[in-house]
């Protein structure tokens, strides 16, 4: 559960909030909402995203609902530490694309009194924990897991199923390449994929093999 009224001005430490979930679950939407509230309160806010993410805009964090906020693209997590100097609140989108240094950077900022809000995919398309997200979730004070709606069952979805034929771990895409699935739908989809990849031989070929080997 996320609580905003936890500021003790005698304690000069910040904290880390993590917003995680599958694709199309509203992670970026929630990140933008929190950052805009901080801006409305006249806090010094800076937003960062990995430079490789140029799907919507090179210098904006944009949600699937076209809600947006200006951001600074950075090639690595180490840049955030320098550029966030003097900030009250730091937002980081698509955190799964950063290396493990992002965990140290977020903790350093929080220890300096900065409120750090991080959004990212908690699992990759194979259903495995994604990059630095597990460690970020472990060290965060507040973790919010948001869900999409499964496109096949209508239930809550926590998996990002990749429809595109591409095995690269980092593969930027939208609804043409991905769809959110529930556990049951994801399991069935992955099982169907594995069956397709099986090398099934014709029974007649299998019968003829021993004869050919003995000849």
UniProtKB/TrEMBL annotation:
Alphabetical GO biological process terms: DNA biosynthetic process; thymidine metabolic process
Binding site for ATP: 21-28, 93-96
Broad class of the protein's primary localization: cytoplasm
Protein name per UniProt: Thymidine kinase
Subunit structure and binding partners: Homotetramer.
Record family assignment: Belongs to the thymidine kinase family.
One Gene Ontology MF term: ATP binding
Record localization: Cytoplasm
Alphabetical keyword list: ATP-binding, Cytoplasm, DNA synthesis, Kinase, Nucleotide-binding, Transferase
Chain ranges passing through the membrane: none
Organism name: Christiangramia sabulilitoris
EC number: 2.7.1.21
